[in-house]
Amino acid sequence: ATLGTLANDVGFLRLGFWADASGPTLDGLTVSLLGDAPAANVSAKIVKDSNGNGVFAPAFDLFLGSQFFAFGSPPSAQISFSSQTLDGTTRYYFIALSYSAVPGGRRVGASIETLEHIDVLNGSEGVLPPLPIRSSQALVQQTLFARPLDGAYPTPFATPPSGGFDTGVFVNSGQNVRV
């Protein structure tokens, strides 16, 4: 997948939790950042599927918590939230990422690396798929605008050079554009 240099609430992982006995609670997750995006520019958000359909809908699903990634190897965001009681019904939780000012060519993704990254109280984690659980990584792409006003760039005032054509792409001093 490819994303722009600014993204809000992009779903990366869906986690389903259930318990064979009533009582255990899910109280937090530690999310690791995959890829090479600057950690300080990326935040993770945990949302709970509100209607039980298993589909990520950030405008309707219940927000539980968010946190920017802390530097580390890998960078991680420890997100605590109100206790979520687990029972025999599968409940879905989504990990979404938001970021700004991530340079083009970088990659972003999310993972749950170890059992210690799943905070369960009054019970055990039970049977889990093999860890780590990792999303695919999305490639961040820079967008160029062929019409300067689309990107809020100034329009050239000078007459276009003769013998060529004006693409309308604004190029700052010292930048090169390869076509």
Keywords:
single chain, 179 residues, seven-stranded mixed beta sheet, four-stranded antiparallel beta sheet, elongated
Provide a descriptive summary of the structure in words:
With 179 residues, the chain is an all-beta fold. The protein is built from no helices and eleven strands. The chain has strands at 2-3, 7-17, 25-35, 42-48, 62-68, 76-85, 91-99, 107-112, 118-121, 133-134, 138-140. The strands form two sheets. Strands 1, 3, 6, 8, 9, 10 and 11 form a seven-stranded mixed β-sheet that branches. A four-stranded antiparallel β-sheet has the order 2-7-4-5, with no helix packed on it. It is elongated and about 65 Å long. It starts with a strand and ends in a 39-residue tail after the last strand.
Question: Helix fraction?
Answer: under 10%
User: Uncertain regions: pLDDT < 50 for 5+ in a row?
Assistant: none
Helix vs. strand class:
mainly beta
Distance between the termini: 23 Å
Q: Which sheet architecture does the biggest sheet show?
A: 7 strands, mixed
Helix tally equals 0
How many strand units?
11
Name the average pLDDT: 85
Order of H and E elements: EEEEEEEEEEE
- What oligomeric state do these chains adopt? single chain
Question: In angstroms, what is the radius of gyration?
Answer: 22 Å
Task: Determine the strand fraction and express it as a percent band.
Answer: 35-45%
| Inertia-based shape | elongated
